[in-house]
Amino acid sequence: MKVDKKPDFSGDFDRLGREYYKDMQRRNIIRLLLTYLAPLVILIIFFNIEYDALLDEGKRLHLKSVAENQAKTLDLYLSERIKNLSNLIDNPKFQLPPQSETLAAYLGNLRMNSDAFIDIGFFDSSGVQTTYAGPFPSLERKNYSNEEWFTGLQEIQERFIITDIYLGFRQKPHFTIAVSRIINDQYMVLRATLEPSRIYEYLSSIEGESDINISIVNSAGLYQLVTSNLGTLLQESSILPPRSPRIGIEKAEIAGEDIFFAYSWLKQADWALIALWSEKNKEGLFSRFRLQIFLISVATMLGILIVIIYRARKLVMLQIESDQAKAQLEHAVRLASIGELAAGIAHEINNPLAVISEEAGLMKDLMDPQFMTETTFDDLRPHLDSIHDAVFRCRDITGKLLFFVRKTDVSRKPCNVNALMDGVVDGFLGHEMAVSNVKIVKDYGLEIPELTTDIHRLQQVVLNIMNNAFDAISNTGQISIKTSFENNEIRIAISDTGKGMSPEQMNKIFHPFYTTKAVGKGTGLGLSVSYGIVKSLGGKILVESSLGKGSIFTLVFPGE
Ligand SMILES: Nc1ncnc2c1ncn2[C@@H]1O[C@H](COP(=O)(O)OP(=O)(O)OP(=O)(O)O)[C@@H](O)[C@H]1O
Ligand SMILES: [Mg+2]
Q: Separation of 398 CA from ligand 1 center, angstroms?
């Protein structure tokens, strides 16, 4: 329940009061949550996204550098193997055609360089393997002239060729490095076959990156080297890196999941090296990080929430204390003003009472047979008049005072403001106007909506103000009455060309019994009573004045 109105506060507060402060506490909590927690949540989300992006970028760069380095290492490895072979065939002491034993000795030397070498063979220009050393002696004298690598080597400019991995005559995966040479117009080829798994072992041994998977594919996307968890040899890879740029990072969809991979094409063979994060890495790092962030965020937010609830409670407590203090103060002020009023009444009534008592005493003396004075009615008349005046003065005071205490119901009726003003001026002030040199100027606004108000009371207020205006003008002068309707407000402005007031005077004119008029002339209650009436009718009184020039009293009422 929303409670807009502050409860009437005296001592303990009731159900409505409790609702009011509960509602205030709720609003305080929401306001504090919006101020402190909302920015934090946004910050955490932003940080999360940014951190992910940063982490991703770092991982990508790392993957790319691994792919690049591994490709370089492999290139170096292959170029060394080519050099091993070309050193043999380019040696001037190379025997033509070589004997099987010589080749076997060469193979031994090659194996000392790398144990990936399986065998070695020498081919004449017709493509026949004339000499062979290695574990498959049946391959000797076989004709290779139609083999892809043999025809390929003849077609290219370079003197060497590295084949993809294939099964060949021996039906076992291997790849070939062949080097050609022309001696005495005779075309000849020395070739060795190599074991791919050895290279893989070599790569992984220098790798040291257990969370990165390395594989190698040929230009058709068939695995040349691969770990068993990714695929098998010569199987088609789901990743085929683009030809250009030669080194890069790309995204691929594997088993319905988007993953990124780094690749680098080799220089020595038409192969691409591919680096991927292993499953283990993906899971571990991300979930641990997320959990940490989540826990820290929840803990921080909980902490803030507790502080906010505590603060909101504290704020409401402070508010209750301050409201209580204010209520007590108001009470005290009310008591004080009642005291002031009582003192004022006592003072005002004491004067006429003193006059009555004095006059009564005098009359008693005059009538006393002891003094044997012959008192006539004419002797008594001035004293009786004095008593009469004093009683009327008392009645005047008590009559006005009744407005402070009487809680008579306000009876409202729609009325025409201009007609009401005419009624006061012509009806009540006719006599005043006749005897004074004061000119009354009316400036009535047209189309003023009817004002629903207590006509009798409003007349009394206007009369008070007009009387004050007459009193302020000592000789000749002018009183202007202006009625208007602006900004949905009905205004009645009464200005005079009287003596005006100083700012200090203006501060006091609404206090009861404040008067500058001669003793017996004014009670000082006119404006304070008027103020109470106008307030009860829902309006306000504005005062402007300048000393020696005049004053303007404006009554303002909200229009319907
Ligand atoms: N139009 C005015 N021009 C100058 N002074 C004014 C004007 N109206 C009020 N005052 C000052 O405000 C004082 C208080 O006015 P208020 O009507 O409350 O009492 P009063 O006129 O003195 O007494 P009463 O109204 O009982 O006859 C006046 O004594 C006077 O000094
Ligand atoms: Mg007055």
A: 18
